Amino acid sequence: MFQRIIGFFNNQNVKWLGRFGYYLLILLLLFFMYGFNDASSGSYIYNDF
Q1: d(CA 15, CA 25)
Q2: Residue 12 counted as domain residue
Q3: Are 14 and 8 contacting, i.e. CB atoms less than 8 angstroms apart?
């Protein structure tokens, strides 16, 4: 049973799908954190220079 679980997680498709989901989650979180500000309302780092 343990060998089947290890074999499942060593599958290239499962690894690719895991990385895809991980990076998609990061991208979506960054979008939701910073994506809803328009150009005049955001706290952009260079606004005060």
Answers
A1: 15
A2: yes
A3: yes
Domain that holds residue 28: 1-43
- Give the total number of structural domains in the chain: 1
pLDDT digits (tens, 9 = 90+) for 2-42: 898 888 888 999 999 999 999 999 999 988 887 766 555 55
| pLDDT at res. 30 | 86
Asked if residue 48 is part of any domain, the answer here is no
Q: Is residue 49 part of a domain?
A: no
Packed helices 2-9 and 12-34: angle between N→C axes, nearest 10 degrees: 60
Q: 13 vs 2, 10, 18, 45, CA distance in Å?
A: 19, 9, 8, 40
